[in-house]
Structure formats: C-alpha cells, structure tokens
Task: structure prediction
Amino acid sequence: MSLTIYAVAALAVLAASFFTTVSGFGFALIALPLLTCVLSVKTAVILVLVLSIAARSFNMLQTRSSWQGRVVFTLFSGSMIGALPGALALKYLPMAEAELLLGGVILLAAFFMNRHTYFPVQNKKLGRLAAGFVSGLFGTATGVSGPPIVLYCLNEGMEKSAMRSNMIWYFGLQSFFTLLVNYWAGNTKTVTDWLLLTALLPAMFLGVVLGNRAFKKIDQALFQKLALAAVAAGGVSLLVHGLL
Result:
C-alpha cells in the first residue's frame, strides 16, 4: 500500500465518519467517490461496508436510548427484502443505467424538498417498507443506500435527534446485513488488502469523536439543509459514476 493510497483513503474515512456521526447517514456518499479514485469499485464498496459498521457501532451505543424501534425495524425489513436482488445485481449486472436512474430521481426529490414541497404519506408502514426496499437494493449493489431513507424521513418531518438516532440504528443494522449478503454472494473476495482496513480505523474513530462534538451545535434547520445537501451530492455522484 502506497502512502498516496493511504492518505486519500484516510481522508475519505475521516470525512465520512464525521458526517455520518453528525447526520446519522452518508458514510458511503462521502467515502466512495474518494476511495474509488485509488481502489477498485467493488473493493471500495466492501471496505466502506466494514468501516461503516465500525463507526456506527460506536454511534449506536451512544443513541441506544433515543432510537424508535418500530420505525427502524420497518425500514430494515424493507431493506432485507431489497438486499438480495441488490447483491445479485452487483455480481452479474452493469449498474450504470440504475445509477443514472436513481441519481436523477434523488436530485428531483431533493429539489422539491428544498422548495418545501412534501408528499403526505397516508400509510407510513408501507412507505417505510418501500423506502427500506429501495435503500437495500441500491445499497447492496452500489454502496449508496442513504438518499431514499433520508428523503423519506425528511418527508415525514422527523425531529433532528429522532431522525439521527433512527438512521444510525437503521444504517448500522443494514450495513451488517448487507455485508453478510455480499459475503454469501462472494463479493468480499474482491478485497485482497485487509491491512488497509486496519490502518484506516484510527481515522474512522477520530471522525466519530469530532462528529459527536459538532452535532450538539447544529439546530433543526441546519440539520435539514445538511441532509438535503448530502442527498443532492449523492445524486450527483451516482450520475457522474453512471456516466463514467
């Protein structure tokens, strides 16, 4: 492993850990674009899954008294249903078209929400299952699972602490399950340098510590703006990656 690869990867993991601790999501949105500059896409997806599990484990302990089990497990149930076809798509299908489609839909939804246009959900249980399914499908296939969940939670109007705690637990459970599915599908064999993972753990831990300090200074309005900005960035990232 060269010093350049490590420096880029450490910066990506530090930034991703910081943002996901502040917002409850976004590890892959931040880490993947940088990691794919120095690693293969499939290797980067697996490393992001493992590192996100480590970062979210710390955050899950800190939010264990404030997450909403009914919300999280409904989203997670949908995610489990979507994870299997997502893993098979990662193994067998080119994902460029899917990334272009998802990126376009994400940007369109973020645009409407930025203009305070929301879509009332009559059946929240069904809506959460659907959001979880889309998140699980694309999370397993592309490593980017956050935008569907973030958009849905914003659309429900969740308070920032509840939304953050729910997403920390949801993405923690989803990341662990997604890693198991990718192991079953044989995708973890693409990672040949597990020493890089160990070397990146200090950067991950530093990001978690700094992120917890920053969260206390963020109000509801700023939290929503950060969430929408990250969603838009994820949509742009998917479009660019799909085109390239």
Summary: DSSP finds ten helices and no strands in the chain. The chain has one domain: 3-243.
